[in-house]
Design brief:
This protein is mainly β. 11% of the residues lie in helices and 29% in strands. The strands form three sheets. It has a seven-stranded mixed beta barrel. Helix 2 (142-150) packs parallel to helix 3 (178-185). The model has no long low-confidence stretch (mean pLDDT 95).
Length: 231
């Protein structure tokens, strides 16, 4: 494969500035009890850090275990389903609180979605990340989600917004998260808070979604990469 460009589709995480907990404790190696046996030479720079984080911090992937008691977690979800052909659709015409309908999604897709695709949707809402408006976003109708599962047969659904879930009339979270439940019961993970999707609108590429392999993690921050093929 002749590579043209590599795109980083993940936000940079910043301890102390994320919505959910992210802390990093960095010390010189001899300041940690368990590492004190590794002496430094003079005042050399030799550090080790510990990170405490919420599994839904920043750009993160949610696995079936998030809503399915016996579902696969970050350690057991098949690796081959985290790598594959990707496609970005432009759904930015739907604003905050508006619902992306099945007819609307089919129109912007224009027949581009192929079975096994990892589908990313550009809302433009990544510009709100780390602001008071970061939960401003459209939602997907349940009919749209069901179609993506049963007819389009996507492998992953990702968005550059805080979520894909229905909104209740007051604008808050919808009870039970039916869109999450439908996707995760079907084995389709969800990626939230992506970024840098606009340059890839309507393009096809190879994408990698690789979180840490942590047993019992229902979700985890993730580095998502898109790689263009010369063809």
């Amino acid at each position: 494969m002749n590579l043209r460009r590599v795109f980083d589709l993940s936000h940079t995480l910043m301890p102390g500035r994320e919505e959910y907990r992210l802390e990093i404790d960095t010390r010189l190696v001899d300041k940690w009890e368990q590492f004190s046996k590794y002496p430094r030479i003079g005042d050399s720079w030799y550090i080790i850090s510990e990170v405490t984080l919420n599994t839904h911090t920043g750009t993160h992937i949610e696995f079936p275990y998030h809503h399915v008691r016996e579902g696969q977690d970050a350690a057991t979800f098949p690796l081959e389903h985290l790598i594959g052909p990707g496609l970005v659709l432009n759904v930015s015409e739907w604003g905050d609180g508006q619902e992306i309908t099945l007819d609307g999604l089919k129109r912007v897709a224009g027949g581009r979605i192929q079975p096994g695709d990892i589908l990313y949707c550009y809302t433009g809402c990544d510009r709100f990340y780390r602001t008071e408006h970061q939960h401003r976003r459209p939602s997907f109708s349940t009919e749209t989600i069901e179609w993506l599962i049963s007819e389009a047969k996507i492998k992953i659904l990702g968005v550059d917004a805080s979520g894909i879930e229905l909104r209740n009339p007051q604008g808050g979270p919808y009870p039970g998260q039916p869109n999450h439940l439908a996707l995760l019961q079907a084995g389709v993970p969800i990626i939230e808070y992506m970024t840098n999707l606009e340059p890839l609108i309507n393009q096809r590429f190879l994408t990698f979604v690789l979180p840490l392999k942590v047993t019992g993690a229902e979700a985890f921050p993730v580095r998502v990469i898109a790689v263009e093929d010369e063809s």
